[in-house]
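FIELD: query
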Amino acid sequence: QVQFMESGGGLVQPGGSLTLSCVASGTRISVYAMDWYRQVAGKQRELVATITSGGTTVYSDSVKGRFTATRHGVENTLYLQIDNLTPDDTGVYYCNGRRSLDTQKLVGAWGQGTPVTVSS
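FIELD: result
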């Protein structure tokens, strides 16, 4: 069973930075397009960043230039560096994977997510 465990969230002031982590079990993340999602209370999960098996990154317009997705193959861990945080970045962040960018089908169950709160 493919599972993901996110961590690294917290309370941050606007303009601050965070690095989120996602550890995978039951699979090797290097073979998938790995995604980061953000969910705001009362809204659907929003795809914010993707890193493909080849290392190509894709970002939503709202986070482009501030979010950086990376992957450590040996540690089987996905990272999301978030810089210049704004209150709109507040939400619970989740990771998951897809076999390719051409599918919406996810490879694993949703983890607990890691909450990020941006507030002064």
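FIELD: remark
The chain has a mean pLDDT of 95.
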